[in-house]
Amino acid sequence: MENLLKILPSTFIPLFVAIDVFAVLPIFISMTDGMAKEHRQTVVRDSILTALFVSLAFIAVGEAIFRVLGITTDDFKVAGGLVLLVFSVIELIIPGEERRQPTGKLGVVPIGVPLIVGPAVLTTLIVIVDHYGIVPAVISLILNLIIVWLSFINAQRIIRIFGRGGIIAISKIMALLLASIAVMMIRLGIANIIRGS
């Protein structure tokens, strides 16, 4: 238990940065604007449950897919790091609302997937499971989804407190942190590949 508490920040923070609730929040508000309270609560519930289910399913089958394709976790660290680096650079250059503006029917998709759980989150999850194990990864995922849920049900209040400009600024800082995590993943992956060869 003590060991779990020590590594929890190392598993929680990368997921928090990858989800980037500050970028998702304004989109959620614009998509649910004018919606009845009961309907909005249903959308929130469905999106969180979808995000949880998709993430757990990916954790369950991710390693099996690696074995079938002959991919090592170090290969995935390098590839995943590159993907996260691209996502973070796009987030820094293109406004979050414009980049994540969804198309299609509102509901489970696109809020649950890919707005809450997209490629960046799934990549981060696989790397966390490889580094720290499945239990810390799942606990960190659930804690982050609780934060997203609380943010969604208090969305209007949060926007009033920080303002849209403040939300965008925080989102850019999150993107910079995500870029740093991506570089670390690439560095560790390459170092392990060189050591193994």
Strand and helix layout:
Elements: H1 2-19, H2 21-32, H3 37-69, H4 73-93, H5 96-99, H6 108-116, H7 119-132, H8 134-153, H9 155-196
Helix pairs in contact: 1-7, 1-8, 2-8, 2-9, 3-6, 3-7, 3-8, 4-7, 4-9, 7-8
What portion of residues is helical?
over 70%
- How are helices and strands ordered from N to C? HHHHHHHHH
Number of domains: 1
**Total strand segments:** 0
Number of helices: 9
Structural class: mainly alpha
Mean model confidence by pLDDT: 85
Report the span from N to C terminus.
36 Å
Strand count, sense and barrel status of the largest sheet are: none
Strand content: under 5%
What is the global morphology? globular
**Rg over CA atoms:** 17 Å
> Which regions have little confidence, pLDDT < 50, spanning 5+ residues?
99-105
